[in-house]
Design goal:
Elements lengths: L1 H9 L18 E2 H6 L11 H12 L8 E4 L10 E4 L1 H15 L2 H4 L3 E5 L6 H4 L6 E5 L6 H11 L3 E4 L1 H9 L9 E4 L6 H11 L4 E6 L2 E6 L5 E3 L4 E7 L6 E7 L10 E2 L5 E2 L12 E3 L9 E3 L2 E3 L1 H12 L5 E5 L4 E5 L12 H12 L5 E4 L13 E3 L3
Helix pairs in contact: 8-9, 10-11
Bound molecules: zinc ion (ZN).
Zinc ion binds next to loops.
Length: 385
């Protein structure tokens, strides 16, 4: 696949002079550098300006022809990512996704696929053909409205961000035809998946996707496999932790080649092999970004440590954010609800976090988080200074 990609690389200004060499000889590129000039990072001879114009037009709903461009959700800080795909790449992407997500017997039956994600994603709009009926449900709608519209559509397959699924579950939503549930666009945890499964009756499986590529999929055994059949993902050790950050090469993308782009998620490998038959490496679900690792003097605390410590006490249905800096940790929780007696006290959660992570700074609790705002949820945050 790498060899087949070389003509495309030769037409991509940022990469052209390395064409024909081994992957290891290519430079590693930061996402910010790629996003600074999309003109250098496409094989179609298009300028940065043209591509941004195309993505802006697509966002406004104007028809843009065969080639589709769009903006990713972004993580709050820094520029959003532009995603470019030709019809062949979209077909390939959908085929790859469905093959990894759904068993063959499901693909052969009629399905109603509901996509509850950010404004219409061109990558999926081609799905609504043949046996698949496809509908997009915008995230901007209220919870009540989304539940009503989804219930009316009767999806057999639903893809949504986990914070939205957790809210549906808490609100008592019921989708009677639902058979396959997928979490996308932000990290989720074991406790949250348990809660969603308990209430919605289907256990969500995770899709780990970024603008840089479709990185991993959870198999039927509930294990998250890197998509090693289509990507060359190098794992760069993160100092002071047992984890890595991915350096991403997508062996199938041609309009916008992705070669050795350094991702910002913090990943840990799961050393146990999976009996499902897919040979992709197994990782633990990513819980945050490398920049959100807590770095106290002499102590490093990773996002999965924080999530595990807090959700052991809080469960998977509470909204929380733990924000740390060199002097203190602030645990943001929702305003206290006197009606629910079983809600564990904030003090217990703060103590559990402090003890489990052996924190050298105090944990303060603020009841000031009533809903998630912003495009993406960040449970674990590090603010340096
Ligand atoms: Zn597996």
């Amino acid at each position: 696949m790498w060899r087949k990609l070389q003509p495309v690389i030769a037409r991509t200004p940022a990469l052209a002079r390395y064409a024909g060499r081994d992957l290891a000889e290519f430079p590693v590129t930061e996402i910010a550098d790629l996003r600074a000039d999309y003109g250098a990072w496409n094989s179609l001879g298009m300028s940065d300006e043209e591509l941004r114009g195309l993505a802006a037009a697509a966002e406004q709903g104007s028809a843009v022809g065969e080639l589709s461009a769009g903006w990713s959700t972004g993580t709050g800080r820094g520029a959003r990512g532009l995603f470019l795909a030709s019809p062949a790449e979209r077909a390939d992407y959908i085929g790859q996704s469905l093959a990894r997500l759904l068993p063959a017997r499901t693909l052969l039956k009629r399905q109603r696929l509901a996509l509850h994600l950010r404004a219409s994603n061109a990558l999926y709009s081609d799905v609504g053909r043949g046996r698949f009926t496809f509908a997009h449900f915008p995230l901007e709608a209220s919870i009540k409205q989304s539940i009503a519209e989804l219930a009316h559509f009767e999806p057999t397959i639903l893809i949504a961000p986990p914070h939205r699924l957790a809210t549906f579950a808490a609100a008592g939503a019921h989708f009677s035809s639902l058979q396959h549930l997928f979490c996308g666009s932000e990290p989720t945890s074991e406790a949250e998946c348990d809660f969603i499964n308990e209430r919605l009756g289907v256990r969500p499986r995770q899709i780990y996707q970024s603008t840089e590529g479709f990185l991993a999929t959870e198999c039927a055994n509930g294990r998250l496999h890197l998509n090693d059949h289509a990507m060359a993902i190098e794992l760069e050790p993160v100092p002071g932790t047992p984890g890595y950050r991915p350096i991403i090469t997508d062996l199938r993308r041609t309009s916008q080649p992705i070669v050795r782009v350094r991702g910002d998620d913090y990943l840990e490998l799961d050393p146990h092999t999976c009996p499902c038959g897919f040979a992709g490496r197994v990782i633990h679900a990513p819980q945050g970004r490398v920049n959100d690792i807590w770095r106290f003097e002499g102590l490093t605390v990773t996002p999965p440590q924080v999530v595990t410590a807090l959700e052991a006490v809080l469960g998977g249905d509470k909204i929380w954010q733990a924000e740390a800096g060199p002097e203190r940790v602030v645990l943001h929780l929702s305003p206290p609800c006197p009606a629910s007696i079983s809600t564990p006290s904030a003090t217990t959660a703060a103590r559990a976090l402090s003890q489990a992570c052996d924190l050298p700074v105090p944990v303060e609790v603020f009841h000031d988080l009533s809903a998630w705002s912003g495009p993406k949820r960040r449970k674990v945050v590090w603010r340096d200074g």
